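For reproducibility, we list the full input for the adenosine-5'-triphosphate complex.
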Amino acid sequence: MPNRIKKIAVLTSGGDAPGMNAAVRSVVRTCAYHGVECVGVYRGYQGMIEGDFKPMDARSVRGIINKGGTILKSARSKEFRTKEGREKAFQNIKKAGVEGLVIIGGDGSFTGALVFNQEYGFPVMGIPGTIDNDIFGTTHTLGFDTALNTVVDAIDKIRDTASSHNRLFFIEVMGRDVGHIALNTGIAGGAEEILIPEEDLGLDRLVESLNKSKKTGKTSSIVVVAEGDKIGKNIFELKEYVDENMEGYDVRVSVLGHMQRGGAPSCFDRVLASRMGVKAVETLLNGQTNYMVGLQNNKMELTPLDNAIKGKTKINLELLRVSDIMST
Ligand code: ATP
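The corresponding predicted structure, in tokenized form, follows.
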């Protein structure tokens, strides 16, 4: 392996996701394995601008693989969007002797990385960390699997109360632009309907479907709604409409919110994070730059950052069909 780079920095940026710590640990330990120095940057790009760095060795990441959030903290940095901000970041990182950067974050963070690379020729690698699973080039982003398990656990609990009181629950889950969380957890949680941004059922069709379920003997119902669903302006409007147009149900709303981001990462996310960290560091050490590591056909693959940012993930049509059949 042509070991040209002697020091690598790692940062977490954008929204936090379970598994980010496991990825930081993997980056640090892969560096140690290859005899490369590693530096942790606190608070994402803002920490680069302020020179908030800390040397990290293999032992400095002990006990974090099972922790949610990110020990490096995450941030959204307005200053990094400016030329002056990025110049400060470059000067700091150069002064620290860093020669390559691993960014754990979403597509915004990758855009920042690409701009930085274009301006300074600085080697960058991306690890997709976001619960929404909305990044092209990987079947799973870090944190997605954990968020699915968290949401299914919540749906199970809500179902207990729904079935005890003949209630209809609208449960809002994260996903402003994509319905991956809603579709998967809706199927796993036995939802009667799943509303996602990619598909507009229409309000009438929703009420018709719920009425049909009721006629077949259902006494309670769960509807999983992605934040970005297009039917109603928001979940409370959906409730109002169904309240007015359907009888016999006590309609309730539950917005799961930020609890979906927290918690210990699942086994899947810990393994994925460990694999992604190894691949990201070794790709940099191979002299390659501007890639995102991702999972494809259970292999670690590279996608050019540009494609990862511009590409759109597609909803799994087979899952849509399964969900239709299951709500019969
Ligand atoms: P999430 O998917 O959780 O929102 P993200 O990585 O997409 O994560 P953003 O807030 O979009 O989150 O981006 C994170 C940071 O990346 C921004 O705060 C900013 O510092 C940097 N960034 C984003 N876009 C650009 C850009 N066009 N130029 C420079 N920096 C950028």
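Residues 7-143+265-310 form a domain with the Rossmann fold fold (CATH 3.40.50.450). The pocket of adenosine-5'-triphosphate is lined by residues 13-15, 45, 76-77, 80-81, 105-109, 111-112, 115, 130 (CB under 6 Å). Both points were considered when choosing residues for closer inspection.
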